[in-house]
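Exam review. A common question shows you a sequence with its structure tokens and asks you to describe the fold in words. Practice with the pair below. Do the first one on your own.
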Amino acid sequence: MKKLYLDSDVLLDLLLDREPFSEQIAQLIEDSISSGIKLCSSPISITNIHYIIGRLENKTKADSKVKKVLKIVRIENIGQEVIDKAVGSKFKDFEDSVQNYCAKDSEHEIIITRNTKDYKESELSIFTPEEYLAKISAE
């Protein structure tokens, strides 16, 4: 089964309806679910999402939106091995490094993010939602 790893930024685009990005991630999620593609993320994404929505809106809305995400996204594990790899990596941003190694250790091949430049050290395929939608429509 194919899996897509979703970074925090694209999930926030969806939940906060950030234009023009929310339509692209909504389409990607819709297409993935109808195609049987498993959508995944990390515990870090969930805590980031809750924190940001809680600050922008309130805790009740943050709780509600996290519950919505958990209905469509499977949360992968982060353990000692992922953290060890992230600490020793060439990534500039530690959080992006943890996300990358979480995806890699969970056998993902693709990370969907709006900040592709943050993953230039990754061995995985990195796409924005728009790039990924163009890729699958061309196949």
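Now try the second one, then compare your answer with the model answer below.
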Amino acid sequence: MKQGIKITADKVLLFDMDGTLVDTNLANFLSYKKAIHSVTKTDSDLIYNPDKRFNRSNLKNAVPNLTDSEHERIIQEKEKCYDDFLHQTSLITKNVDILFKYSKTNKTVLVTNCRKDRAFKTLNHFGLTDKFSNIFCREFGDNDKKINKFKNALLVLGVPPNTVVAFENEEVEIADAIQAGIEFINPVIF
């Protein structure tokens, strides 16, 4: 993973959304909290941790004794509740500035594991939708197995990984970018 780069017009810039372009953690947490209350009819004692994203993986640990049905209903309800908390999101300026600067001269692509409708709601809220030449949202393969979003984007776009600069905040996703052959991940730009 190389750390410094001069971005030339031939580079393709791949951006994640949650935690990279937009801080959605608080809105996400509040959406889950409201969804939990809506489904279970109880107040949860969840406490917001700005350093850890609350997600479907830790939902069962945070709210023990959920049935599978309740778990799924909470996840569905959380998506509906997100609109109520969109105002709790904020831009991550350093990465958005890069997007604005290079969207005029380079191919800029959103590559996110977020659901399509939430991605577009968030992008539209901040006027970012038109900054992307392509938008890739959450995709699953056979047996609901998560697809490497970077490999998928490279394949669909038909671009070699050595022409790509990726912006990503999650370690698991950074590992996927490296596995896809991307060398420039969150580089210092000069």
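Model answer, second protein: Residues 2-24+90-189 form a domain with the Rossmann fold fold (CATH 3.40.50.1000). The chain has two domains: 2-24+90-189, 25-88. Full marks require stating both points clearly.
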